[in-house]
Amino acid sequence: MALVRPRTTADVAAALAIAHAHHVPVVVRGAGSGLAGAATAPPGSVVLSTARMARVLELDPVERLAVVQPGVVTADLRAAAAQAGLAYPPDPGSVAFSTIGGNVATDAGGMCCVKYGVTGDFVLGLEVVWADGTVSRTGRRTVKGVAGYDLTSLLVGSEGTLGVVTEVTLRLMPAPPPALTLVATFGTLTAAGEAVGALVGAGLDLSALEVMDRTTLAAVDDLTGMGLAGGAGPDRRTPAAMLLVQSDSPAAAEVLARAAALCTDAADLAVAQDPAEGEALMEARRQALPALERLGDWILDDVCVPRSRVVALLQRVEEVAATYGLVIGVFGHAGDGNMHPTIVHDRSDPASVAAQRAFDAITAAALDLGGTITGEHGVGRLKRSWLARELDPGTLAASRAVKAALDPRGILNPGAVL
Ligand SMILES: Cc1cc2nc3c(=O)[nH]c(=O)nc-3n(C[C@H](O)[C@H](O)[C@H](O)COP(=O)(O)OP(=O)(O)OC[C@H]3O[C@@H](n4cnc5c(N)ncnc54)[C@H](O)[C@@H]3O)c2cc1C
Questions:
Q1: What was the pLDDT predicted at 234?
Q2: Which residues are in the FAD-binding PCMH-type domain (predicted)?
Q3: Whose CA is nearest to atom 23 of ligand 1?
């Protein structure tokens, strides 16, 4: 195993040319926060870290775009855009430490997707180093542009298997007003799911629609001491589920009043009084995974179903938890139908084999409900064996042909995705 820490595109090109010549696998690494094992380098690989390529190269308020190196931390770009009165909406829960290169390579989502879309919706163009060390530019800086095949979109979400991204041109937008937040709690997870259906169906201008179940809420409270729901200590009465509903519309108060009226089965409803309070609630939501990690060993799923099937998915997760006698914390981007059931278990217990079965049952349920095996974390190594269950043989063959054309020696992140 070797580590390469390039500072420039020329450094990346030189490293890849050598690796290509000697058939050495290369695994690119941003912050290593990916949740599908895509940046986990197999023995004998060169790890290519983008940590030293972390500069915002350009921020153009007139063209509303930014040009950045891949190692820029997502939150740093968002802060730089905000200073110019602009916004870069993509906000994965890992926003404070994930990198733009990693976000592009996984097509990362986040809380904002319900209104603004995923990382790929903001990528205008890329500089890429192909497997043999050739440097290319894909895409554009203009508002429109359709010259040739859309290689930018091909590279977005390719998890380091088709090329190394060395520069990213990103679309920015005018900063929206600060969001207001509605908190709704429910006596059952299904009731929360039904409210999600009503909110999505009403077409309200929402900028986030997130869910946390009882297990997650209690874990977040234990981690943060926020007293999110039901107080503290063994006697607390944590609700079965909580929805965090945000709107950054200029008419947010009105939008949230309509949203509240649609949460007919809510046990409790409250509107955060100021944007800072709403942001604190969202920060609590970002702590969902770190909080659940403290409960024991865990396997995190990332399934996405049509939004009309969110209730069905939640019911299936509850059935799986009952069948295998496991604790499964559920949180996720409910407004996108993207859930992260997190199976808590004890790896040293032989009975924990049930955790893998539960994971498989949930992933299969998502496909069964017309969904996908991964909404935003990617295939990586974790779900490689699942890909053929989602893609048809023609699409798989075309994907292999693309990989063979761009990386004929198979040196880029072997063992991930395909
Ligand atoms: C607490 C927590 C919350 C999270 N929340 C979300 C969320 O809400 N939404 C979401 O989508 N994800 C989320 N994630 C997952 C993860 O943060 C994202 O997948 C993120 O995009 C990964 O960025 P990274 O810089 O850590 O990439 P890494 O993990 O280092 O790499 C991920 C993949 O990208 C490839 N890669 C990295 N840089 C490049 C490059 N320059 N060129 C080519 N390939 C490259 C790697 O080879 C690997 O295949 C979360 C993770 C954590 C730990």
A1: 62
A2: 1-175
A3: 102
